[in-house]
Design a protein that fits this description.
23 helices, 4-stranded antiparallel sheet, 20 strands, alpha+beta, 638 residues, globular
């Protein structure tokens, strides 16, 4: 071995995952490694570049990884000696999704994937390291400090929850694969593959897979003349077949293809080669699946030019939510991802409206309120929003408000075309009541909170759940400060809010039977939103305001935080948090099944287990109700 290769092997063995390989293996790899000298500010690869045939390790210097966000270059991380980056060619076929640029003069080791792949396939520790590094965006998934936030992989700019969503995302694949007999002639199979436009055929016997033929086999074994086209398929097929169960995830499929160095997986009833064939997964299916991951959806949202574009993306989100639920991904994680994508759609809708109207005459903030403000909008429900613009002089006020009302109307119209219905109560930024200056909003919240009895007809608790979708963060913070300044020693406000929280209709009768709708289109159905979810949402908001929990709007997270700040009642809060997830899941499934908001559940269609889960999720509500009565003086508005 030459001196340079020996030096490289010595360097690599100090860092994971190379420390799992023997020095002999590292020496063999090192002989193929290319040393790249990067001058300061020189780019190794950039967004949308075609993938390289190598991945990279920093030998010395610093490499900056960045993405383009909101038309600006955003630094994600800095790679230093020993850090791996550029893993995308291992797991994906589409182009790079970030830029790698030298922050200072640097030396990089380019490791050919073709050389490294056999060592990965034969070493599960190395394989797991690379897979988790790619899936969780960390340079070293074994290092808990890095897991906290060091983003290294080329899997783009998502949070850990989004990466987890992609990791468990279900694959769509060919459920009617081409199946041929072992006695079939290659020429016949090639013609069938051409006619059906498939790149693979399963060789089967009694509907069990015994081999597989792909375009690669046709090229390497037939086109090269190794075998005549008249030979039978058993001469060129790959066997045994790599088989998997149904509902396999994207990352699991990537893992198996990499481990077995194959481009196709056969789906069978029980995941073995001794059960019926259900379908076939190709590398192309992985590429299609990646087009529906959260990071890609957000990227497409930013490029959208019309409501039609945004609607198409929102439809894909619905598909992603449905598949994630089928895979039993945590409903809280699904909510986090859906919220970010919904937020991006709202933001882009505002941007498109501004492009039509021209630049705003003043700074402002578009706030999503209600379910989206709580990061809980999984289904296409109605839209709720307010608009707050900065204070302007009296002579400009009318023109400024007129602009923002137009902006509100255009934006809500776009969102309506995307699929978010207009709020039936008019709680939207297009309504002049909810499009105001910061001073006017300050007066509004002061009135609501200090004289709630006089404003009981117009106060709505959804105005206390909000999240900025577009605009000035400081304006949102100003509204938040107004609210939390007013809750101090405000027994009257909590009296009103507490009674409002207890006013919801009971979910169960005295005999523990579900109380269903008696008349109307939803007769005999259970109102899971009003009777089950809203009491939990209202209770979480009430206690969060009383304990001054700023910046926590999500119901599940509110209960989690309350368990920390009020440990004496932690068990009640934690039971409520789990109940909220169960109820949210049931509502989401109902909505996906019926293509609606999921508010009314047909109990007759629920399984016995689901009915029991629903009833159990209602149990913590009684304890929460008693806790509200004990903590707040509910007298004046009772």
């Amino acid at each position: 071995m030459n001196t340079i290769a020996e030096h490289i092997a010595d360097f690599l063995k100090k860092y994971p995952p190379f420390d799992n390989l023997s020095f002999q293996e590292l020496s063999e790899i090192a002989t193929s490694i290319r040393v790249v000298n990067l001058e300061k500010h020189k780019t190794l690869f950039q967004i949308n570049d075609v993938l390289h045939d190598s991945f990279y390790v920093v030998a010395s210097g610093v490499i900056n990884l960045s993405v383009i966000a909101d038309a600006e270059e955003t630094l994600l991380n800095k790679c230093v000696a020993g850090d791996i980056f550029g893993l995308r060619p291992f797991f994906a076929k589409n182009n790079y999704m970030m830029t790698a640029k030298a922050r200072e003069e640097s030396i990089i080791y380019a490791i050919p994937i073709a050389t490294f792949r056999p060592f990965v396939a034969n070493n599960s520790e190395v394989l797991d390291f690379l897979l988790h590094s790619f899936a969780t965006n960390t340079s070293n998934p074994n290092d808990m400090e890095n897991i906290g936030g060091k983003l290294i992989s080329d899997n783009v700019y998502y949070s850990n929850q989004q990466s987890e969503m992609q990791y468990f995302q279900l694959l769509s694949y060919n459920i009617s694969p081409l199946k041929v007999a072992i006695t079939s002639m290659v020429q016949e199979v090639a013609q069938q593959m051409t006619d059906t436009m498939t790149n693979g055929a399963i060789v089967s016997k009694d509907n069990y897979p015994i081999g597989i033929i792909t375009n690669t086999d046709m090229c390497s074994k037939i086109a090269t003349g190794r075998f005549p086209i008249t030979t039978t398929v058993d001469r060129i097929m790959s066997s045994p077949v790599v088989t998997v169960v149904e509902n396999i995830s994207l990352a699991e499929a990537q893992l198996l293809m990499l481990k077995n160095n194959v481009t196709h997986l056969c789906v069978t009833k029980d995941g073995s080669d001794k059960s019926d064939i259900k379908g076939i997964i190709s590398e192309h299916d992985l590429i299609v699946a990646q087009a529906n991951n959260p990071g890609v959806l957000i990227k497409e949202i930013k490029r959208s030019q019309s409501p039609k574009d945004l609607k198409s993306i929102r439809d894909r989100l619905t598909n992603l939510i449905q598949k994630s639920i089928q895979k039993n991904v945590s409903i809280s994680n699904i909510s986090n991802i859906a919220s970010e994508i919904n937020l991006a759609i709202i933001k882009r809708s505002v941007e498109l409206s501004i492009l039509d109207l021209g630049s705003p005459p003043a700074r402002f903030a578009w706030l999503s309120i209600g379910s989206q403000g709580r990061k809980e909008q999984l289904l296409l429900t109605d839209q709720d929003s307010i608009l707050v613009f900065e204070d302007v002089t009296a002579d400009k006020y009318r023109d400024v408000k007129d602009y923002f009302l137009k902006l509100g109307k255009r934006t809500t119209a776009i969102l309506e075309k995307v699929g978010y219905e207009f709020c039936p109560n008019g709680h939207m930024a297009s309504n002049m009541l909810w499009c105001k200056s910061l001073t006017d909003w300050t007066k509004q919240y002061n009135n609501w909170m200090n004289t709630p009895g006089e404003n009981s007809n117009e106060i709505s608790s959804i105005f206390f759940d909000f999240e900025i979708a577009f605009g000035e963060q400081k304006i949102e913070e100003s509204i938040e400060n107004v609210i939390f300044n007013n809750v101090k020693n405000n027994a009257l406000f909590f009296d009103f809010l507490g009674n409002d929280a207890l006013r919801k209709n009971a979910p169960l009768s005295f005999f523990k039977k579900f109380i269903v709708e008696e008349i109307g289109a939803n007769k005999d159905k259970f109102d899971i939103k009003t009777r089950a979810l809203m009491p939990l949402i209202d209770g979480a908001r009430l206690f969060s305001l009383s304990y001054n929990l700023k910046g926590v709007n999500n119901t599940f997270m509110r209960f989690k935080q309350l368990a920390i700040v009020d440990p004496r009642n932690a068990e009640i809060y934690l039971n409520c948090s789990e109940a909220f997830l169960t109820l949210s899941r049931i509502r989401t499934l109902e909505g996906l099944k019926n293509d609606n908001s999921g508010q009314f559940v047909n109990l007759q269609e629920l399984s016995k287990v689901d009915k029991e889960n629903l009833k159990n999720a209602l149990a913590p509500m009684r304890e929460l109700e008693e806790l509200i009565k004990n903590k707040f003086q509910l007298t004046q508005f009772s």
